[in-house]
């Protein structure tokens, strides 16, 4: 299965390598660099690259390429999913997953990778188990270790490995038993220039942070499970119970985990809570154009819309923009032609707007297409799917609109 | 968990190391003199000294630095002798790091690596299963051919180990040994055969992996384990599931007859749904032998279905390909929803999933049509995702949706991502050819694009228009004239070549323009691209044949230019054309037919999906992604005409197998009754959450005891139900339930599809739940209670046998739990009720309840008292503000 792993940073340096079988020379990455050059943008590097003797499967996260080297047939998603799991684990261990952090903790990283794969086949990927085998570094523990000489490495097989609930540590104890559930719903919509919705769908996740003593068995029931069009579960959720009763019954892992993600296909009937008015015009004779965007709320049920960010990719011919926002801050990157406007909260009485002029490159012809506008926003305590009552903090939507 | 006990053993550990390393020390110590030559060398020197010190902390530091070097890819092999001495270190972290080092460098330093072998051999006998396992891991990873016999022995022993974790590692070691020395194949197959019989969910995935790698053709080894694997599947860890599902897909294709009826043909069999009953009947009559699915075949399809809900994209994909390859076509529809869900995932996952959907959508359009809008391109998608989505949209296009799609495409053409815009134009061309209704609309749309300002768009349009015109060469003189004008402005070679070809082909329709174009091209011939030059030659030849009066000289001029061109292709073509069209005495019979040769009716090109030919690869494989056979790809065989003997899968001790099968999640399923009663209880007492603090205090005390006693008690409770564990009553309940299983099961499946097979196999969940306690305790006892468990198993088996007689009928088929299954027959997604925003407020919230003491013997823990007072409990009460349930700390 997975032969070797190379971590490559954005400047093309291999800063970590790990082999689970015979050593594969790092020159194999040359093929990857070639592909990277061809792709121009990082996100366009193909995830699967064949080379004469190996196959390179890569994922790109946190500005790092995780490149796995494969020699024989294997389901590509298997490897990709695993690599993502590696990244998640690192994030879980170190808080962030970045090049300096990985370099600083290279020993722990190595130990973790060693436990995650044996002969290229996943051995332990549950973070609860890994954390028992190799404890995440903390300042306190480092101090204790230097004094007592104890180590970060467990010497007993985590009991979870053998049980039927491999995701849960045993012997969990808390003085304060608490469980948090965050429901995050994202609405993803494409809206055409006339303002009508082309597609809209709601994706939701329930992220949980469970700190309960012992082996708790939880059930979670929905008032209106019919709404859930499609769900995927953490392995701890009992499929059969869900199938028969539509109840989530599970023994949770300890700590943070994603309990389920769901999909509500609302077709065209989702009420998008914001609108954008935009107006761009160019005068044929000059190289100047007018630009105006207004954002306003609609159907928010009394909630304020926060964290509004408008981004737009301007046409190549645009040289610069001189704009003045009525609120928030805006930036325009003349290299990438990316305009971004951090609006903040929307005040329904005084709608935020961004006005100004666009200057085109001399001689450049008038752009024939209007730029697409992406809009992100959050609304606390409102669930668009209607699956939950709107009283929850930590709930937000992301709307991605493109007005063409 | 703490290794404190080892931490203070420095003295002895260090002593040992020094002893071992004495020789090395004496030779190395004076080497400080070399420090002058390279600082790197010097650095390694102090590492060596640190490794030889008596202090574990120094050693640990040194090892950490060495591992850092390995990680960076620096060569640390010269430290081998110094490192290998520490392999026996008592400090577990040092030991682990030494293992890391050994695995990395042992292959290069085989002789020195042998020094460490005896340590591993000793560790293989260690009472701690983690140590046994890691010793086996390292021993099998160091790739030193001399120790093959030792490895073989170790694997054999480990395969019989009482700890499933060690057995899992043995399964991994099999693959390692096989790659080191393929000669051992036969012996290894024996071990695999043995491990395949293993009932532990921990082992299943790994041993199937070994099977796939060592002897994928020995399908006969699977027969007896087939049902067991199917039943275990839900509980195996995710990675194992993927491997097992892929293997079982292959297995099913060799063992069962095709469930695809002939009239399904290539298209989805939607048709048969709408057929009237009479027709249906006729058809069945014609077929004579109605198809009945092997129950084992059904078992596999049914048991994999819940895995579509897995969070792991690889598992979902594996199930999807299983349904695609082995389920009846009418049932495969359920996978589309899950696959579409994966499109919300990372770009890499999207990429692979879209590729697979592309292949599927060619063959069975119906599956993904309801999800058309999910494939609409977003401006933020990377280009490779965009083009894949386009591909799928094209495949899904039909008369009904083409107008919406074309509108969507119009937006794409304006995209700033020019590569994508070009791909869109190609797509429009394909739609135009596939759907004759819109050909004209597309064509005029493309002609409009010819006046686009962007050259790439124009060039692509030209190429596509060329293809379209070729298909219906009739009255398109206008378009051709328009394109001839473009020649002056456009510079992209492919587009120029396309225009020239088009004019040449239609030279009789545009008699005035064609010679003029040739004149212009003759002028610029030398500066054209090779591709264009070839087409100029072609144009010349065609005009020469049709209109030699006007173009004879021009053509000859061009031929002369071509004769001395740098490119040999062009020189060749020139020579060929000259011989063919210019009559001279040497020219043979061919030149008589020159006109026919050049102006023959040419078949229109077929605009095909690039995914057309991928379907012979198994979906979800690397080979499919690459569209080329990857090393080690295993062909999916065709369905056999006649099914091989199904009785090979019968397991004699069927009851036993069932009882010992850890049915994992099903296992956790408590009788529903219990759940309900508990939650009620809780609601009653929900106000009591305020005591949680105090209770949890007392709990923690209990916890400790539990931790110790849990294993013992669980063993007891399961193997001898009479023992006084707290859950006894429950256990008995369940046994009773099992006895009643037959009747109950029937009730369950009342809603009634597939009644026929079920009457005897009716109950599964019951059977499974009954096996629950047994199996869970099994895994526990295997792990810890080394000595007794074997003997106990035997007695248990006897018990079971006796019981078996009683309900022979039920158990016979009880492995095929069919009750909860209902074949989903419509691939069409039902529209979910959409809600008006005003409704939202009315809709209810989520109800969270902690059934505190449920835990259950199932997991072999008595921790039930452990968390009586979970904080969220009070939120379980309906009508209370739900805000409490989420997000805010409680208690």
Automatic annotation (TrEMBL), chain A:
* SUPFAM superfamilies membership: Second domain of Mu2 adaptin subunit (ap50) of ap2 adaptor, SNARE-like
Keywords attached to this entry: Cytoplasmic vesicle, Golgi apparatus, Membrane, Protein transport, Transport
Q: Where in the cell is it found?
A: Golgi apparatus; Cytoplasmic vesicle membrane
> What GO terms describe the biological role, i.e. biological process, of this protein?
intracellular protein transport; vesicle-mediated transport
Q: Residue ranges of the MHD domain?
A: 176-404
Q: Which GO terms describe its cellular component?
A: clathrin adaptor complex; cytoplasmic vesicle membrane; Golgi apparatus
The topology of this chain with respect to the membrane is: Peripheral membrane protein
Task: Report the sequence similarity comment from the record.
Answer: Belongs to the adaptor complexes medium subunit family.
**Name this polypeptide is given:** AP-3 complex subunit mu-2
This chain's source organism reads: Equus caballus (Horse)
What's the encoding gene here?
AP3M2
UniProtKB/TrEMBL annotation, chain B:
Low complexity: compositionally biased ranges? 687-699, 762-774
Membrane topology (UniProt): Peripheral membrane protein
AP-3 complex subunit beta 1 serine-rich domain mapped to chain residues: 671-783
Q: Where is the Clathrin/coatomer adaptor adaptin-like N-terminal domain?
A: 44-582
Q: Does the keyword Coiled coil apply?
A: no
Q: Where is the AP-3 complex subunit beta C-terminal domain?
A: 812-856
Q: Where is the composition biased (Acidic residues)?
A: 700-723, 775-788
Could you tell me where this protein is found in the cell? Endomembrane system
Q: Pfam families this protein is in?
A: Adaptin_N (PF01602), AP3B1_C (PF14796), SEEEED (PF14797)
Return the Polar residues bias intervals. Answer: 1-11
Its principal location?
membrane
**Annotated stretches, region: Disordered:** 1-27, 268-291, 664-831, 860-891
Q: Where is the composition biased (Basic and acidic residues)?
A: 268-285, 666-677, 724-735, 745-761, 789-809
Q: Which domain of life is it from?
A: Eukaryota
Ordered alphabetically, the record's keywords are: Membrane, Protein transport, Transport
PANTHER family given in the database record: ADAPTOR COMPLEX SUBUNIT BETA FAMILY MEMBER
Tell me the protein family, please: Belongs to the adaptor complexes large subunit family.
Which protein is depicted? AP-3 complex subunit beta-1 isoform X4
- Gene of origin? AP3B1
